């Protein structure tokens, strides 16, 4: 406890870190406030009565991810989800379209162009999703103005709300702590946790079963933490060049030893977010043909229930595929092999160049498969929790998207805070003169 208090004191003694934390809290407060602002033209009482009764389990699950804004029909009802969908599309284009591949290689200028394309695509996706959302999620009889005026104005407001959420996420990333987009999703999830716990306590009078639930949740959290922090160390040696008296290179000898830390879950939370963003599409598309096709009715029913076998099988498969996909686009073994070769470094027992690239790819394949499977298992645990009579409001916190996002974002934020504390510690040592051997050298 004393160490915790000391850490808090050190955090608030660093001005830059303190400012970033306050910036983050302020932006998150604005985001939460916007999730309670109702779309104009709706009867608040009707919307409030329907907010706690989603039309299906999938809608309730999405409502958990969005902190209740989805069922409240707020201006932030779609949240940051259209931006995530746009990011998926752009990254897929980066794998297949030469233009996007060139942009990825252009450094900072290419990244800015990709970000701009993603923003424009976000607006287009939001316009489509907002129309579908208004047609399916607005409670019957809640519209108290002209239907045409309501739908036109609401599409504009929902699109503006998503763009504003996107802007908030970028500001948190630039001026705050942590990844802004993930932070917005996390705060929406956490906001539902206290009410979910209270509902579980009220609905379950068996104290022993509540203790068992907490123990199970603890072990699931520990498993997610281990998955998130696990790394595979690839040993690396640096060759030290020996130069003769005449300035000619004579030989190399073994120099400093190090390692490449390959994360077991290199894709982090992104496969879950990507897969979740796509899971509403089957039921949405099938709903358009429900009146003419029995198959469409089956798809709509099963993919609207996040505890169904079809939903969880598809969800787990998408997570495994996206884990491989995101690992492939974030880690480039060829580039890593080239960087090692340029720095006179090599992996013991492996030839530089193509052999090193193949060796790193083989390791990635070996560690990505168990990571993807474990990630998929964690993602479908809420369905099993609900089968075990855990309330629908608390079940998402037994694993799945909610827990993985929370753990991943919290660990990432803690790492950034630790980096600031470590940097401040080094600065303090330099200013106090505690670094031995440091001399002031005048440069003419």
TrEMBL record:
PROSITE patterns associated with the record: SECY_1 (PS00755)
Transmembrane segments: 21-39, 75-97, 117-136, 148-169, 181-201, 207-231, 266-289, 309-331, 367-388, 394-414
A Pfam family per the record: SecY
Subcellular location: Cell membrane; Membrane
Keywords assigned by UniProt, alphabetized: Cell membrane, Membrane, Protein transport, Translocation, Transmembrane, Transmembrane helix, Transport
Membrane association type: Multi-pass membrane protein
KW Metal-binding (keyword) present: no
Oligomeric and partner information: Component of the Sec protein translocase complex. Heterotrimer consisting of SecY, SecE and SecG subunits. The heterotrimers can form oligomers, although 1 heterotrimer is thought to be able to translocate proteins. Interacts with the ribosome. Interacts with SecDF, and other proteins may be involved. Interacts with SecA.
Name of the protein this chain belongs to: Protein translocase subunit SecY
């Amino acid at each position: 406890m004393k160490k915790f208090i000391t850490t808090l004191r050190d955090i608030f003694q660093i001005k830059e870190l303190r400012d970033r934390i306050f910036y983050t809290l302020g932006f998150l407060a604005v985001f939460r406030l916007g999730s309670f602002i109702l779309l104009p033209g709706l009867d608040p009482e009707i919307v409030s009565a329907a907010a706690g009764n989603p039309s299906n389990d999938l809608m309730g699950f999405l409502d958990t991810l969005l902190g209740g804004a989805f069922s409240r029909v707020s201006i932030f009802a779609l949240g940051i989800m259209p931006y995530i969908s746009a990011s998926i599309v752009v990254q897929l284009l980066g794998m297949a379209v030469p233009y996007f591949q060139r942009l990825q290689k252009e450094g900072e200028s290419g990244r800015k162009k990709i970000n701009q394309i993603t923003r424009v695509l976000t607006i287009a996706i939001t316009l489509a999703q907002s129309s579908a959302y208004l047609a399916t999620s607005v409670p019957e009889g809640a519209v108290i103005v002209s239907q045409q005026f309501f739908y036109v104005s609401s599409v504009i407001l929902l699109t503006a709300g998503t763009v504003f959420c996107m802007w908030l996420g970028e500001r948190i990333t630039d001026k705050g702590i942590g990844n802004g987009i993930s932070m917005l999703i996390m705060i929406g999830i956490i906001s539902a946790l206290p009410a979910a716990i209270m509902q579980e306590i009220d609905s379950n009078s068996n104290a022993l079963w509540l203790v068992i639930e907490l123990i199970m949740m603890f072990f699931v959290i520990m498993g997610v933490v281990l998955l998130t922090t696990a790394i595979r160390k690839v040993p690396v040696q640096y060759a030290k060049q020996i130069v003769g008296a005449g300035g000619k290179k004579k030989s190399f000898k073994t120099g400093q030893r190090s390692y490449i830390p390959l994360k077991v879950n290199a894709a982090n939370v992104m496969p879950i977010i990507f897969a979740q963003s796509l899971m509403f599409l089957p039921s949405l598309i099938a709903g358009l043909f429900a009146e003419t096709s029995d198959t469409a009715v089956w798809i709509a029913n099963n993919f609207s229930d996040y505890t169904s076998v079809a939903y969880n099988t598809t969800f787990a498969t998408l997570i495994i595929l996206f884990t491989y996909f995101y690992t492939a686009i974030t880690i480039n073994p060829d580039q890593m092999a080239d960087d090692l070769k340029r720095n006179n470094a090599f992996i013991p027992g492996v030839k530089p160049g193509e052999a090193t690239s193949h060796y790193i790819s083989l390791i990635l394949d070996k560690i990505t498969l168990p990571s993807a499977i474990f990630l998929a298992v964690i993602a479908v645990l809420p369905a099993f929790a609900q089968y075990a009579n855990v309330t629908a409001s608390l079940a998402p916190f037994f694993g799945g998207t909610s827990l993985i996002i929370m753990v991943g974002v919290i660990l990432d934020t803690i790492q950034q805070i630790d980096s600031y504390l470590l940097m401040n510690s080094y600065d303090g040592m330099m200013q106090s003169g505690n670094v031995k051997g440091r001399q002031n050298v005048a440069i003419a």
